[in-house]
Design a protein that fits this description.
Layout lengths: L2 E7 L2 E6 L4 E4 L14 H23 L3 E13 L7 E13 L3 H15 L1 H6 L4 E10 L2
Parallel strand pairs: 5-6
Antiparallel strand pairs: 1-2, 2-3, 4-5
């Protein structure tokens, strides 16, 4: 995996992924930024949610679950002192579908957290990561 990060101005950077996608990262105005994009640590948290969501949806589809929608609400805490690593992360999954089996959703989340999601497993070295979920029936 490769990428490139270029300084733009102040604390603003343009990142380009190896797959050719770009993202702007910037800081808050009180930190010298212009608030033009998410903070790097926000992207790290979002990327982790994306990694685990990818796993969960993939596992549910392989389990022949009729998934119609899914999102993850994230809540994280960071250390007060440098390095301000994540110390707690909570992922709340909302999975919408038809006749979804809660035990299958729970299993998919557990497999992602313990076996498949590289980002979660890596961040789990410094943070206490918890998960919960709710299943909603599609109208």
């Amino acid at each position: 995996m490769k990428g490139r990060l270029k300084w733009v101005d102040g604390v603003c950077f343009m990142g380009e992924t190896g797959s050719g996608h770009a993202v702007v990262m910037d800081g808050a105005p009180e930190g010298g930024g212009r608030n033009l994009g998410p903070r790097p640590m926000e992207l790290l948290l979002m990327g982790t949610a994306g990694c685990t969501s990818y796993d969960v949806i993939s596992i549910l589809k392989k389990s022949r679950q009729d998934v119609r929608d899914c999102w993850v609400e994230m809540d994280a805490e960071r250390a007060d002192t440098e390095p301000k690593v994540f110390t707690k992360i909570h992922f709340h999954f909302v999975v919408v579908g038809r006749n979804l089996k809660p035990e299958t959703v729970e299993r998919a989340i557990k497999l992602s957290a313990e076996k498949y999601c590289s980002a979660s497993i890596m961040l789990g070295k410094t943070a206490d990561i918890t998960h919960d979920f709710e299943v909603r029936e599609d109208a």
